[in-house]
Amino acid sequence: MAIDTVIFDIGNVLAGFDWAGFVRSFGYGEEINRRIAAAVFQSEEWHQVDLGLMTDRELIEAFVANDPELRDEIETIFTRWQYSVTEYDFAEEWLRSLKARGYKVYILSNYGKTMFGYAGGHFRFLRHADGAVVSYAINKIKPWPEIYRYLLEKYSIVPENAVFLDDLSENVAAAEEQGINAILVRSHEQAVRDLEEMLNPRE
Length: 203
Hints:
CATH class of the largest domain: Alpha Beta
Number of domains: 2
CATH superfamily of the largest domain: HAD superfamily/HAD-like
Strand content: 5-15%
CATH topology of the largest domain: Rossmann fold
Largest sheet: 5 strands, parallel
Strand order of the largest sheet: 5-4-1-6-7
Order of helices and strands: EEHHHHHEHEHEHHEHEH
Helix content: 40-55%
Distance between the termini: 12 Å
Radius of gyration: 18 Å
């Protein structure tokens, strides 16, 4: 096995997604924060954001239906929710250095259209990627096997020559089922160490 391709998730790998901290930043208080979390980020409808089949207005109405008394708060959160994801300081250099060493670098991420529109214009690491598959654009999400196969076919990636980094165990397992080497990201330091061991295996 000779790894020539590194595939990155975005959230909690290259950029922090702290939705709970984002909700607290509005100063609504813990009880309202709990209800917002239940209505939006922890709801069954949340995956629809990444799936890309609903408009922002349809998403808002679906979340509001979970707690109608919080319409104003949910509407307000939606005006700023692209800021709930922030690029890590190390992300750009990590991808740039891998590219300089000759590796192909791709992005495979669950992401909504509005939020990725912001990321595409602000996240510096994206300029170093050879390509990206983002869930909303193809209406497929991790850990569905179809999204991994789409990436492999689109960019002619040989799965056994690639490694995928993600912070969710189910996404890592799904990648491995497609024959892709994978690393579960628990911290940046651990991810770098595990990746380097895979890129430079001991004889």
